[in-house]
Automatic annotation (TrEMBL):
It holds the Pfam family Pyr_redox_dim. Residues 355-465 form the Pyridine nucleotide-disulphide oxidoreductase dimerisation domain. Coiled coil: none annotated. The keyword Hydrolase does not apply. This is Pyridine nucleotide-disulfide oxidoreductase. One of its GO terms (molecular function) is NAD(P)H dehydrogenase (quinone) activity. Belongs to the class-I pyridine nucleotide-disulfide oxidoreductase family. The lineage of its organism: Bacteria, Bacillati, Actinomycetota, Actinomycetes, Mycobacteriales. The active site is at residue 456. Binds 1 FAD per subunit. NAD(+) binds at residues 187-194, 210, 278.
Amino acid sequence: MIEPSTRIDVQSLVRADLVVIGFGKGGKTLAATLGRQGWRVVMVEQSADMYGGTCINIGCVPTKSLVYQSEQRNGSDAESKSDYYRHAVFAERALTSQMRAENFAMLDGIDSVTVLTGRARFLDPHTVHVTRADGGAVTVEAQHVVVGTGAEPIIPDIPGLRESSVVATSTDLLATPDLPPRLVVLGGGYVGLEFAAMYAAYGSEVTVLEHHRQILGQEDDDVAACARDIMRDNGITVITGAEVRRVEDGPASSATVYYARDGESRSVQADVILAALGRRPVTADLGLDAAGVRLTEDGAVAVDEHLRTNQPHIFAIGDVNGGPQFTYVSLDDYRVVLDQLVGAGNRSTTERVAVPYTLFMTPPLARVGLTERDARAAGHRVKVAALPVAKMATVPRARIVGEPRGMMKVVVNSDTDEILGAALLSYDSHEVINTVALAMRHGITATQLRDEIYTHPSMTEAFNQLLGALV
């Protein structure tokens, strides 16, 4: 390691122990940890608006802030709907601005860490050129490099879509304080449905167009159907089996989306079209070829179980490596890389089991492990319990808060009593699912989880009844 010294001066050439490209969760945590240990670290972020990464600025924090604000609205006339949404957006912006400043200060306050705002590009495996936002340039030579540039939304090649004046990505939609009167969402996956639910709660007229036979195609049919019923109850029009053919702009910042369903041509009007059809790793213009770094067929940076690329001193963490696109996975990526750089080098991604995830509709859908469909397909003999929340008499918490909608489902290995997976579509499910995941990771059986003592009234005590219903 290069001898630690004072903060790197921003000059034409600097030498560092570590360059981190991208201010996301894993990268910033690694930079801070090693910087405090005396490593000379350079953090490169292309925009001052992205200090802290996707989660804080255009992902988890702003969307969940807007979801929360939407749940506080109790209905009003058209004018106050727009005003309420505008107020919610400004509150979200204040929150993200504060967190962005805190994240910058976290690194800027460490003497051996320098934050460069600009675009990074490899010149060779150990050299990164940074074109700074202020017009200057810095070349950094580093012993180790971590690529954490994240992922970006995809706008598919549908005739007229990319050229439309009303098409938006999730990032674009978060940037406007104007509530769209009519929102058409292309894609019935997690991002699409989260935005659909949120904007419907603010008062937009929302239509979801999903190509497959059901929304949430990775979920069991009963769970997906329950989510769809809740969305319909909230006034969202969900159209499955819809093949979008083209988009045509109309007058007054509107457009028509033409699609086919069951062989019949149909259309829907939109003031905003949200393209929620997937994300791709951000690798363009990084000069990875100059570094000799290989990509996968999907365009992600190829890594091994220790997150090393084919260049052993270059790592890739977070969304850019093609793994699950969750902030908490990026944080675990940090632990893997840290162990490679200053630890025993044993930690790897193969140790990850029972990683939960949540769709923040209202109420939220949280999932972990195998679905019933996948468990049976894998050859497991299973027991299943699936109960509507409204019929779970021992779970009054949902009624207390006025949100008894949804269902809870758990899948258990009938031979070993091992919990294989769970889907919780219910109030506070994003918290409760962590209990299931912890049980799965540490071998706590379904019977043990069923017979635990839980606080009352809480959603966690649902396990007493739910796991008692296994058949």
